[in-house]
Amino acid sequence: MRAWCVVVPRGRAEEVRRALRDRGLLLKHAEILREGDRILLPARERVDLGFPVEQRDVGATFVPVRSYKDVVRVPDRLRPLLPSSFDVIGDVAVLKIPEELEAHRAEIGRAILAWNPKVRVVARDRGVSGGLRIRDVEVVAGEPRTTTVHVEYGLRYHVDVARAYFSPRLGTERMRVARQVAPGEAVADPFAGVGPYAILIARRADPARVVAADANPEAVALLRRNVAANRADRVEVGEGDARDILASVGPVDRVILDLPHRAMEFLPDALGALGPHGTVHMYGILEDAEREARALEVRYLVEGSGRTAEEVRLHDVRAYSPSQHHVAFDVRVGPG
Description:
Elements: E1 2-9, H1 13-22, E2 33-35, E3 38-43, E4 53-57, E5 87-89, E6 92-95, H2 105-115, E7 121-129, E8 134-142, E9 147-152, E10 155-160, H3 171-178, E11 186-189, H4 196-204, E12 209-214, H5 217-229, E13 235-239, H6 242-249, E14 252-257, H7 263-273, E15 274-287, H8 291-304, E16 308-319, E17 324-334
């Protein structure tokens, strides 16, 4: 390409390069020419820094692509709004796109596909809604599908991002819970989705049984498929309302309430499903100031049910927003 170059002595080259960079005039990713004791620095335009300028043909240097933002083409004024992170589920990227960037959603999808060749589909996430926790998604680039296979800790999960909720960001939390399951335990997972908690526990721990259920029939169909695909023979699959499931499975040693926005509603039902001693893993999306109040509320509810709250342990799962965290509560319960 043709560019104006500032011609400087070798000893002044770095000083002038920085001056061009700081003024936004340095032509990035263009080759810097060397001719004897002269250095030619490519600039975006003809510029007067007290040195000669010459027009030259310059080549492009190799540019490492560290993010899709390096290749996406959107107006400069909108670049600060580009999503900085998103979920990759199997070969499907799922991301939230601000309304201001809606007209550029196909270009954002194209850039993600170009940046990561392992991604074959890019879907816009319009949010999770309803009691069945289903994402409203729109495929904006790549293959016209929402199904994929996601691998986590060597286990393969068939997922449909438009029909059953699944978050790859909770893999570490799922393993943390699975490692607490003692041999011979009975576990209930009434919000099982496609089965990542239940199947991991069945395959990595040594439970007597794991009852996995969901109210979403699409999720249950995928759950059955995943149980078979991973040979998780100790998983018993059910379908229906969580309260009905918990009322029918007891006594169990452990209940997982993976429903962070509404887990407190189901804590009495989880307590009713436990044997004399047991543990409930429940979750919340909380501000820092709400954590201790929620822990006290959990204790109050447990003791109000005639049980003993032997321990309420808090664990940060992940940041949810600039001011909120996804928090786990491990609630160990004994008899009254």
